[in-house]
């Protein structure tokens, strides 16, 4: 071990003879390259990403957020997952592989919503959905029929 350390110091002094006098010895590997080169050469592999993020807001026709269930399906990526929204209708789906997704939103008392969306960038995609009321939840008020006969005021 000591031979390796002294050998590295000798190589460093041979590479930069004036650095040994100011106590700034740069250790070099056997190939003559510094260890930092090895670390920096692996960084480009970590810098590239093929996943994105979806930020979703689900609301009702009046505007407030709706608690619902969101299903994302990508046949090409063989991806299928279901996410719940919070009480304000917000959802953040992270680490989604790039591709085309089928989006389905189900909320209690609302009609199902379906759409197609693409994730093609690492920049988060913002998407807003307004659910419509289900047909069975819409109350129809009967027409008031007025009698032809008006009761006397006494």
Radius of gyration: 33 Å
Q: How many domains, in number, for the residues?
A: 2
Task: Give the termini distance in whole angstroms.
Answer: 118 Å
Order of helices and strands: HHEEEEEEE
Helix fraction by DSSP (H/I, runs of at least 4): 10-25%
Q: Which CATH top level class of the largest domain fits?
A: Mainly Beta
- Which shape, going by the Cα principal axes? elongated
Largest sheet: 4 strands, antiparallel
Predict the CATH topology of the largest domain.
Immunoglobulin-like
What's the overall average pLDDT, rounded?
78
What class would the helix/strand composition place it in?
alpha+beta
Count of DSSP E strands?
7
Which spans of ≥5 residues are poorly predicted at pLDDT below 50? 1-6
With strands numbered from the N-terminus, the spatial order across the biggest sheet is 3-2-5-6
Describe the structure in your own words:
- With 154 residues, this protein is of the alpha+beta class.
- It has two domains: 2-46, no CATH class; 51-134, Carboxypeptidase-like, regulatory domain (Immunoglobulin-like).
- It has two helices and seven strands, in the order H-H-E-E-E-E-E-E-E.
- It has helices at residues 2-15, 35-47, and strands spanning 51-59, 69-74, 79-84, 90-97, 99-106, 113-119, 125-130.
- The strands form two sheets. It has a four-stranded antiparallel β-sheet, with no helix packed on it.
- Strand 2 (69-74) and strand 3 (79-84) form a beta hairpin.
- The radius of gyration is 33 Å and the shape is elongated.
- Mean pLDDT is 78; it is low at 1-6.
Write a compact overview of the structure shown.
This protein has helices at 2-15, 35-47, and strands at 51-59, 69-74, 79-84, 90-97, 99-106, 113-119, 125-130.
């Amino acid at each position: 071990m000591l031979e390796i350390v002294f050998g590295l110091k000798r190589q460093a002094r041979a590479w930069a003879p004036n650095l040994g006098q100011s106590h700034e010895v740069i250790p070099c590997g056997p190939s003559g390259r510094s260890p930092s080169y090895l670390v920096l050469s692996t960084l480009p592999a970590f810098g590239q990403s093929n996943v994105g993020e979806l930020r979703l807001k689900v609301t009702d026709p009046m505007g407030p957020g709706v608690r619902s269930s969101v299903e994302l399906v990508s046949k090409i990526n063989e991806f299928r997952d279901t996410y719940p929204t919070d009480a304000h209708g917000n959802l953040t789906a992270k680490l989604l592989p790039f591709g085309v997704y089928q989006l389905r939103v189900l909320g209690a008392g609302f009609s199902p919503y379906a759409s197609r969306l693409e994730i093609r960038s690492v920049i988060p995609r913002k998407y807003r959905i307004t659910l419509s009321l289900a047909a069975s939840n819409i109350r129809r008020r009967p027409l008031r029929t007025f009698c032809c006969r008006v009761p006397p005021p006494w």
